[in-house]
Amino acid sequence: MSTNKKEKILVVDDEENIRKLISEHLKHHGYYCSTAVNGKEALEKLENENVELVLSDIKMPVVDGIELLKRVISEYRDIAVVMVASSFDTDSAIEAMRIGAYDYITKPFYLDSLLLSVERALERRRLIIENREYHHNLELRVEEQTREIRNIFLNAIEALAQALEVKDSYTKGHSKRVTGIALIIGKEMGIDNKELDKLKLSGILHDIGKIGVKEAILNKPTRLTKEEYQSVMIHPETGARILDFLIKDKEIINTIKHHHEFYNGKGFPDGLKGDEIPFFARILAVADAFDAMTSTRPYRDAISFGYAYDELEKYKGIQFDPQIVDVVLKCKKVIEMVITEERESVLLAVDY
Q: Which Gene3D superfamilies match (predicted)?
């Protein structure tokens, strides 16, 4: 008798007595049943009814079982299909299995054999759906854990940058401003989001090597001596060495290492020239210089935005990549807004 199964089965056959016989037997064993006389009517019913399994004859008028199977496979991936074939038409049965039928039975058939085939197909369907949902949920959990790990990593990185700003009070907010300018440049140049993330991380960390420089030198109120200047200028290499233990992405490491290279090859540490300099390092070089020029330093006052633009133009092709300078000159308004907002937020934090 009924086992309280809740699955609904669509029985498709052009012979009324077979439809009725199969439906009554399946109902007796606890299944809900609906019927259709051919593939066309079956497809119409599938649009409006929730069905777990289609049990279909192969040879039918209008739309046959093979065409019905193809449509179900392509449009209703969670519906199992069991085909019923004549004992003289094994080729069609094999074709049905190749297309994706869960099983097939041949006429004449025993009703108990048909029931067993239906139960096997529904069990296989259940396992396929559960497996797919398991992998989907697993992927979601992995994505969530990846986000959490990334957030922890970024928080740790920002803590490093903040530790530097504690040492060098005159550069408070500098890394954020440089990052903001670099991202404006990157977006204007059509860099995709994944690469922008790398540029962002590079900007936050570009001066991290200054952690190894004495506070007295970083905050010296007069110009640095040659020896002091050289001790500061090794910070790109120092930063790259520090981060090499934390970051696997060599593009980020190389950006930090080479953000003080000159476009004409007379920068440091390696004297790279033109396109030899990593692209992101060339962006940071411009962003870093612009914020440095427009910020107050222990030994000098900030210069105006207008004067800073003139300096970029003056050293275009010498210190800076001409294309990147042109982008900055195109984005003056938004760059100035980012810098002003960041400086105001720093002042508010100090006042508080």
A: 3.40.50.2300, Hypothetical protein af1432 (1.10.3210.10)
Give, in order, the Cα–Cα distances in Å from 300 to each of 171, 278, 303. Answer: 13, 31, 9
| Domains of the chain by start residue, with CATH | 8-136 (3.40.50.2300), 168-351 (1.10.3210.10)
Cβ proximity of 209 and 235 under 8 Å: yes
Kindly report the number of other CB atoms within 10 A of residue 213's CB atom: 20
pLDDT tens-digit readout, 75-118:
998 999 999 887 667 788 788 888 889 888 888 888 988 999 99
Strand order in the sheet with 8-12: 32-36, 8-12, 53-57, 80-86, 103-107
CA-closest candidate to residue 56, choices 113, 17, 26, 13: 13
Task: Write the DSSP symbol of residue 300.
Answer: B
Give the number of other CB atoms < 10 A from CB of residue 110. 9
Contact 25, 19 (CB under 8 A): no
- Rounded Cα distance between 352 and 343, Å, is 14
Integer Cα distance of 7 and 32 in angstroms: 6
Q: How far is CA 181 from CA 159, 197, 200, 285, in A?
A: 21, 14, 10, 11
β-bridge mates for residue 83, sequence order: 56, 104
Residues 22-53: tens digit of each pLDDT: 999 999 999 999 999 999 999 999 999 999 99
Here the tokens at position 205 are: 């960390």
Rounded alpha-carbon distances, angstroms, from residue 206 to 51, 175, 180, 281 = 59, 7, 13, 9
